[in-house]
């Protein structure tokens, strides 16, 4: 257990201000308990220490006290130091925050043997102020702490994390030193939200500063056997198919997951074919070519069912998947036209809002060649349903999408869809394909004609090469 308390200076901001750290929460500036006394009491217990600083003025004096206590008797327990060093969700620009650079400098100078807890100022007041963490917020935080040597735990508002998970998870993935501390205000988070975070992160990298009875309810739900895994749709497919891999953020960068080469792919043609896959106990990726219903323009349907007596809509597909939440299949939508993209994303958003879409979702367009089309595709996904992997299909070699995608600052996991017919021949030229895996998942579609030699060379390069552990290569063999 960790004891947490706010620290300020006696008389802070008044003519009577003294260089004596006291235990008080703003706007209070007086207290009958100094930090010196509080530390003595905590050090006589077996509890950890967390100090929350609301201003920079008290930081240096408090660090001096910590150093003094450590020199005299030793602080043989965790010490966490927290300050809100950046403006976060729903906080106006005029609100002052603690100077983050100076806060971190003081810790390095005076008492570096701590866990850092740098946070964002957050306001949450539904229904008006409910925005979540943005990519800019987490990138600014990363730039503040990327070079510090300490363990870093980021305090995040529990009610806002799930909707901003594509950004929060990016921050968490940047270093094995990073963790999250979920905190709440007066409104209790949903147990479902807490389970989502637990299911999409390593348990040792999330701390819970959550009140009762929610905390006990969450623990009980987490231990429940056979519960549905609330997988983040934009997450790593290999973590979904092999849950033991979900801790791979802590693995060395040279670790390879060759099992991605063996993932099963199944092209959905109609209701019967999908039901058979959901019932047979297999796992893999469902490929759904999506076109428009000729009788109801703009309604997304499975392409091969368009001319049959029973049209199979994308909504039908999602409903069937929602009824079989335990079936370990991801979903790859190959959309034929930009005009259908919004309708598909709206259907995905509705299913996700109902808690029926906890599986990997990949979105790709079949004919994105122009830079403007790629940008429009990415921005539409970001606006309507950003919790996906974005797939960029390449018809030619060398691929043109990486140059455009690099400048987009995507919040989604990106993948390149290549065809063996367009790939260069020979290991020397194929090594460029492997280099792409530093930034993308790769889907190599087997054309079944001249692919044997290319695939053999590619697999050998991957087996021998070194790459990031959280990118994968998949062989799409078009098996209906």
TrEMBL record:
All residue ranges annotated as the Menorin-like domain in the record: 1-213, 261-390
Keyword Transmembrane in record: yes
Membrane topology, from the record: Single-pass membrane protein
Keywords: Membrane, Transmembrane, Transmembrane helix
UniProt GO cellular component terms: extracellular space; membrane
Location(s), subcellular: Membrane
InterPro entries: Menorin_dom
Family: Belongs to the menorin family.
Annotated PANTHER family: MENORIN (DENDRITIC BRANCHING PROTEIN), PROTEIN FAM151A
Name listed for the protein in its UniProt record: Protein FAM151A
Organism: Xyrichtys novacula (Pearly razorfish)
């Amino acid at each position: 257990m960790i004891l947490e308390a706010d620290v300020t200076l006696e008389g802070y901001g008044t003519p009577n201000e003294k260089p004596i750290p006291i235990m008080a929460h703003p706007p209070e500036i007086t207290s009958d308990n100094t930090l010196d006394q509080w530390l003595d009491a905590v050090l006589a217990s077996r509890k950890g220490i967390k100090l929350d600083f609301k201003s920079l003025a008290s930081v240096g004096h408090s660090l001096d006290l910590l150093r003094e206590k450590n020199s005299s008797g030793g602080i043989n327990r965790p010490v966490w130091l927290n300050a809100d060093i950046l403006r976060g969700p729903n906080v106006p620009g005029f609100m002052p925050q603690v100077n983050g650079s100076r806060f971190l400098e003081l810790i390095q100078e005076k008492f570096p043997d701590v866990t850092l807890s740098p946070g964002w100022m957050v306001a949450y007041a539904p229904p008006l102020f409910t925005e979540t963490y943005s990519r800019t917020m987490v990138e600014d935080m990363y730039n503040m702490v990327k070079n510090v040597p300490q363990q870093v735990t980021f305090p995040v508002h529990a009610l806002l994390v799930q909707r901003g998970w594509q950004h929060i998870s990016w921050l968490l993935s940047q270093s094995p030193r990073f963790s999250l501390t979920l905190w709440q205000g007066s409104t209790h988070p949903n147990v479902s939200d807490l389970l989502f975070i637990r299911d999409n992160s390593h348990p040792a990298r999330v701390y819970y500063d959550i009140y009762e009875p929610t905390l006990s309810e969450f623990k009980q739900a987490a231990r429940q056997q056979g519960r549905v895994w609330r997988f983040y749709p934009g997450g790593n497919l290999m973590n979904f198919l092999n849950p033991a891999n979900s801790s791979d953020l802590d693995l060395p960068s040279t670790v390879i997951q060759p099992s991605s080469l063996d993932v099963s792919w199944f092209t959905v043609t109609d209701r019967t074919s999908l039901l058979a896959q959901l019932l047979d106990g297999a796992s893999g990726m469902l490929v759904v070519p999506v076109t428009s219903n000729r009788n109801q323009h703009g309604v997304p349907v499975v392409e091969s069912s368009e001319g049959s007596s029973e049209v199979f809509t994308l909504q039908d597909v999602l409903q069937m998947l929602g009824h079989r939440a335990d079936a370990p299949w991801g979903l790859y939508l190959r959309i034929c036209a930009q005009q259908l993209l919004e309708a598909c994303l709206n259907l995905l958003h509705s299913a996700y809002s109902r808690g029926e879409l906890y599986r990997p979702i990949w979105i790709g367009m079949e004919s994105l060649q122009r830079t403007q089309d790629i940008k429009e595709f990415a921005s539409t996904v970001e606006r309507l349903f950003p919790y996906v992997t974005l797939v960029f299909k390449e018809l030619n070699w060398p691929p043109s999408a990486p140059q455009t995608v690099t400048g987009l600052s995507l919040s989604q996991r990106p993948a390149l869809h290549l065809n063996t017919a367009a790939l260069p021949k020979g290991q020397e030229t194929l090594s460029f394909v492997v280099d792409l895996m530093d930034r993308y998942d790769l889907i190599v579609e087997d054309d079944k004609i001249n692919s044997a030699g290319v695939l053999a060379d590619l697999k050998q390069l991957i087996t021998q090469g070194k790459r990031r552990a959280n990118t994968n290569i998949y062989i799409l063999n078009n098996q209906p």
